[in-house]
Protein 1
Amino acid sequence: MTLTRFSGFPEAKVAVVALPDLVFTDLVPQIDDLAELKVTLLVLRRLAQMQSDAAPWITLAELQADPVVRVALGDAADAHLADALTRAVQRGVLLVAEWQLSDGTAEQRYLANSPRGRAALRAMQRGVEPARAVKMTRPNIFALYEQTVGPLTAILSEDLIDAEKTYPAEWIEEAFHEAASRNKRNWRYIQAILERWRREGKDEADRRDREADPRRYIEGKYKDLIQH
């Protein structure tokens, strides 16, 4: 088995996620299923990144769309995710509420099994929806690169710093997710997305993207640098 080597933590400041020490002393030693362990840590990470007056929750659809979750679970990610979430709920780490949306569809919402989480779950079971004023802590561009593309080099670090100064943070995050969803884990591809948004305006580029060929980013300035 060939291991993918972690390149180490970068010198640049990276985002920090605070989790209770019990996660590592009591919970991790209990979990003997790799997918359950990955999903538990990734869900707790997402919940810890949220700021909300009530206990934050995350939906099944949001987890299915998370590129980090999909990479972590590999092939048949949705099936592994469903099984791991079931195990985490049975273990008592997570709580799940089924919420009826206005269009009649049901939405699965996952919360941490904490005092605030239990209170929010009881409220949802009574038909009361706690306000979800959520603000996500955005990972910096170095973390996004290593999560989406791979190990970072010194030369690329300079390009990433320049990009972080040039483009809005939300554009950078969306571009990485766009590349991951198309399995184009290449900085030049991501850079081409950002440059196109800067040149054409993001809203206009998005409108055209819905009508364009999916190979649009591999034409033009970066076509010789991108593997496809």
Protein 2
Amino acid sequence: MTQYETIAAELRRRIKAGELKPGDRVPSTRALVRDFGVAMATATKALQALQAERLVHPSPGVGTVVGPPPRTTRRVEQPELNRDEVVRMGIAIADAEGLAALSMRRIASELGVSTMALYRYVGGKDVLVVQMVDTAIGEFPLGTSPDDWREAIAMVARVHWAAYRRHLWLASAISLSRPQLVPRLLPHTDAVLRALRGFEKSSALSAMISLFAYVRGLALVMEAEAQAEQDTGVTADEWVTEQADKLGAMIAMGNLPAFRELLADGFDYEYDLDKLFEFGLDVFLDGLATRLR
């Protein structure tokens, strides 16, 4: 029996035993991920299997509930929406479950409208994601740019770090190779370029891209760790503890003197991403200062 079939079987048992009664909300995909230690896609597939059996159905604004979907004998009036409501719902889903859980069908279900109705407001998923990025970045205004070039660049980097921390999906939604046209991101780029006016134009552009790549790259670690913890139920600290003996054995067997010196005397490293971000930012700015001189 596959993982999704195991979950579906357990929920089916609860429904037939009366533990989950008609109208009761069944565990969300996020709860199933936590309780069964599976990926989000597996939890989603389990609920879809029960929907196909008409044992459960999605209820807008509530979640998935026990019972077959209600019959409709007349056309249901579609509630009035606006683009901001659709975008905000997309952000709420991505914040809770990641971009992988985001679909036009899922948003439509949550808002109680037909999937096709959404296209009047956002045009499609790719367009929606760009609008979500624009809205999420808009929550973090830059303010007045400092006169000192280092402080000006650091301000933009920290604003992006804060945005990535609040919205873990944001880093993977932004492309550096094919950058989307996001209106609220342009002032951030402009602020960095203004701070780099002392550089030759090509170097300034390379420095700007490198800065955003550094912050985004470290933010992707946060998203990956959150997904790994959700899938396995094991925290980063717990994982490191589990691997410690294996790492020690590998170092002892290999020609790795630097590793042995590093771990001598019970050295313990505090893996704090916020501190790592600030350390890397200082190194980056120190390197730019050397280039500028």
Protein 3
Amino acid sequence: MTNQLSDDFFEILGGPRPENPFDLLDAYRFDLCFRQMDSGSVLDVGAYLGDFLKLVISDGREAFGSEINDTRVKLVNSIVGSGVARLGFRNGVLDNFESNSVDNVVCMETVEHIIDDQFAVSELCRVARKRVVITVPYRERVEQILCMHCNSFTPHHGHQHTYDDGSFKQLVPNGWKIVKEKSFAARITRMVRRLLPETKISIPLLRWLDKVVPGSGRWLLIVLEVA
């Protein structure tokens, strides 16, 4: 690995500071990722407020989570249950999880924050036995801002990379293969979701819109399997 961030950097980040509350678009994204998984246990890398873990636990699956500092780990465990989340994925490292220890590893909107994203993907695959499900921003324009503390330019929102179709080919480790890659949450889908109440048909409707209405989405979905 190169250009590692210090442990102090991750601790200073503190707890989650969501700019927007959890909404129907997040529920749609979680539903899509949940549908990509194989049977068995699940590790949610970057568990944040534990919303995806709640979905996993409600399905009766063995659930694990990871977060990048003690504050966030304690928060997740206070929400979904003690011992579910562990410290992990600082600089992409999952050293609190053994190799081939979890059936499915899910990592949503997290890989783009890791400087060495190829190493990060290899760690996700190392821990997984069956499948790895990843989402990242799609065709995002990564902007640099001048940091008032260090007087140097740094990526806005901490996003280190931008991804397009085919970007993950060079990131997949030996022994793994891409079985699905597509963008989702197109502009019309995002617009319509603002008009919908949260009912049983809302997520299926967003899923249908993404299939029939052309246009690139907000996120890129990548599903990996053992080759």
Protein 4
Amino acid sequence: MTEDPKMQETKIQAEVQSDVRKNPRRIAFILRRASPHVKTQDDARVMTYPTALSRFVIALEVAFLLLVWISLLVNAPLEGIADPMHTPNPAKAPWYFLGLQELLHYFPPVVAGVLVPGLVVGALIVIPYFNINIEGESLWAKDRKRRLMIISAVLVLFCLFLLAYDVIVALVPTLLIGVLMLWSARFSSESPRLVQRWLFSKPLSFWIMSWFLIELTVLTVVGTFFRGPGWGWILPWQS
């Protein structure tokens, strides 16, 4: 059986710039010494099992051993048996609720006990349903002037609100994060210093989360160490 001369003269080769993700259906004629060359790029993903699950198990075991080790070395700061005839002053909540108890010192119970926790819980429920800055784009990458005006106005109004209720412990972290956020607007991705480029690259979610963590830490520390009888201001070394 002889080959057709026309088929011998025709050179058929696979596409060099083909992408199987964009065009998964194709027909290729492969000769004896030819092979299809397809360029593709795998996503940066890992399998849940065993890669991610094994890390979770290891982290859980490390945290468990650390807590057991701390419990063996340090006694829990428990007080005496509760006496209904003697109410401790001040009556402090557990440490993870002291931030909320500190807010109750400044705001009405409806605001600090219902409105603020309700907004936080509602945001945690609603935010995952929105496509909010998935790529982690810099806050100042687009519409810098417009965003600068909006953030400045929100920051001023929020600071005035805290000053109206004399919430100085919450005002200081707010001013710190606000100044850093506005200061980062002066930089760009080509700034000479690494710190300036790092501040410029942070998205809005980073600034909000940083403010929330610093605020929670400050309120918890103040409620734990700086509040005495009658929820008055004391120094930690005072009895």
